[in-house]
């Protein structure tokens, strides 16, 4: 009693190859578990050198997408080309041909998700994108299924394995950012051009996708403030450790009275928080629901095989029909929701770590405290250390604040940076406290 | 465009009350997100004093289940009576009336799951039980959906919050088991009669349910070896800590060549393992899939509100139709799978911590080493400590083994316990190393 279902993979790179290998090598296991006989019928690409290196059957290779779309047995096409150019055009074409789309393309979803969903809806099919966020971690399923009954109050995600690997190396080995990046590249965990990862762009894509589902509000990617890890200094990681914190590149989303507070940035979290334990290339997302409280989802956020797991889960639900049902029934998809009101960055309320490099002379702290006070910045702790370099005539002053308005702090820091006794631009890192579980 | 769906709750205790409160107070939020207008139409019970204490509308109270089952608008009934007596009879009755069942009843599922599923199938409906394992954590959805494409190689779960709270208290505060149990009771985290929790029975129910889905094999609850935390001594937790381990009550499942190796027992895991960080009443399950590698799911494993989150997720999928689709399509449900072959406990291969209390005299260790050697027990480390009590004439010898057959170790320990120099029955605790990620 197995339902036959043919599928095609479009783009045979790392994830495409791993997905093909999974579908082919585990076909009988998948059929036994799912009751569906999923046949990989086509691998569509221009160049099959990677596919050949994996010893995939050349009988599957096809250069003409039109031929695939004309095959009435094909239920779903897996888009693994990446990017927002040709991938966008072809995704539309696939949907208009009445085929379901499964994709791992976070940039495409973050930028054109609503528009593509509208096309899918018009064509009476669905678009599934579990693999776009958190690699193999079924985090989107948690949001649209497992904890759907909750009003989501916040989520905090480590969603870029490259950055997490680099930060873990810096903290555990005392390496500089540049050294750690080089190690990540040598370990195959960072691209030759790591820009999209280390500047936070990739995390922002995932934040936009996850926020849209979590809060059932369409998030405009361009409005999300993004800061990367590429300017982090080891000295701040070390001061953070003394204070009981580790730094992580976080995708942060909080639902506040006046709108969503979203940002991607390196932030300090307590070593007691489960996210602090997530090391190396692993990813994790902590989600806070009004009924369920704190839940966390952990796993490999990238790599061919883990991503192929998520892609194949979507292939199964596309062939089984549940993907169509949730896509047509639920109202949380970006093409059905209103545009989110985002809190301006300066209106974010948070706690912050600030490091100032100041001249080691009397009266300096009074000047600093004066400016902070004028801006309603209330201090939680102050740490003044011996000069960290014998030759330096400036000493670090490390301050942590109570909850303050970020705009006030930025104003204060701009004023501090102009003081003659402040020798370097101030460093400011948000401290993210554990989100309160509300249960109401 | 909201589909009307009426549901009933059977049994209004802690979880029933929390589910009713969630459905009623969040009805418009749920309708906005799901596109379903889920109406809680009946609360069925004999006694409504708890329901009244929650100020639930008495218009919902109904003592006659038959009347509910005769209402054609009712799509699903939520069974929250608990136990395997009347709950079993009524669940059958509900299913035969053509209503979907949503349940949090782990004992019922572990003991009569296959039989009840067969009834559901005959009646053309489904039975959903996310809340039976891990409270609010969507762990069953991970197994039947999110990481379904994987051959599951193993999973390790902390699935009893009472035990985890007690063990966390023992380790963090140095309290004895009895003191920690008393604290848990005072904090409302342990029942007055904590037997089912602390002896591991509750964890075994969850192990049976999760194993059945993870491995698509029907697990006979009675065949699972179960050991609780009620005989754990602080001295062993302290020795474990010195060796880099923490003790957790674990539901352990490994897929081996000759069958499934299942057990519930207190076990040592490395402080580096994500499960080691799970403290207090939180639960978590680490699952190892052949494609996705290590994934972990974390959250509150009990309590009215978190459990109501899982129950409501099942209500939604029951009303939306996806519960019926996965139940009718997939072949992993216990009524459709073969009975699992379980590895006998003595054939489990593992590493172990052993503590012997021996007379402090020459030649003792030679006797111990001799017996271990005869039984092919190879040692990984040996720690002999000063007497831990001035008056004691016995000293602890702590051994960790390499991977050995558990049967051999048990034979060796029985022989050791008969040695005149061994003063107390030996203590043996499994050491669970990180499961290798396979990706093949």
UniProtKB/TrEMBL annotation, chains A, B:
- InterPro entries, alphabetized: ACT-like_dom_sf (IPR045865), ACT_dom (IPR002912), Asp/hSer_DH_NAD-bd (IPR005106), HDH (IPR016204), HDH_cat (IPR001342), HDH_CS (IPR019811), NAD(P)-bd_dom_sf (IPR036291)
| Residues given in the record as NADP(+) binding sites | 10-17
**Pathway noted in the entry:** Amino-acid biosynthesis; L-threonine biosynthesis; L-threonine from L-aspartate: step 3/5; Amino-acid biosynthesis; L-methionine biosynthesis via de novo pathway; L-homoserine from L-aspartate: step 3/3
Q: Spell out the reaction equation it catalyses.
A: L-homoserine + NADP(+) = L-aspartate 4-semialdehyde + NADPH + H(+)
**Which domain of life does the protein's organism represent?**
Bacteria
For molecular function, the Gene Ontology terms on record are: homoserine dehydrogenase activity; NADP binding
E.C. designation(s)? 1.1.1.3
Q: Where does NADPH bind?
A: 106
Q: Where does L-homoserine bind?
A: 191
Q: Does the keyword Amino-acid biosynthesis apply?
A: yes
Q: Which Gene3D superfamilies match?
A: 3.30.70.260, Dihydrodipicolinate Reductase, domain 2 (3.30.360.10), NAD(P)-binding Rossmann-like Domain (3.40.50.720)
A single GO BP annotation from the record? threonine biosynthetic process
Q: Which UniProt keywords apply?
A: Amino-acid biosynthesis, Methionine biosynthesis, NADP, Oxidoreductase, Threonine biosynthesis
Domain ACT: where?
A: 353-430
- Identify one Pfam family in the record: NAD_binding_3
Active site (record annotation):
206 (proton donor)
Family annotation (PANTHER family): HOMOSERINE DEHYDROGENASE (PTHR43331)
Which protein family is named in the record? Answer: Belongs to the homoserine dehydrogenase family.
What is the name attached to this protein's record? Homoserine dehydrogenase
Q: Which organism is it from?
A: Marispirochaeta aestuarii
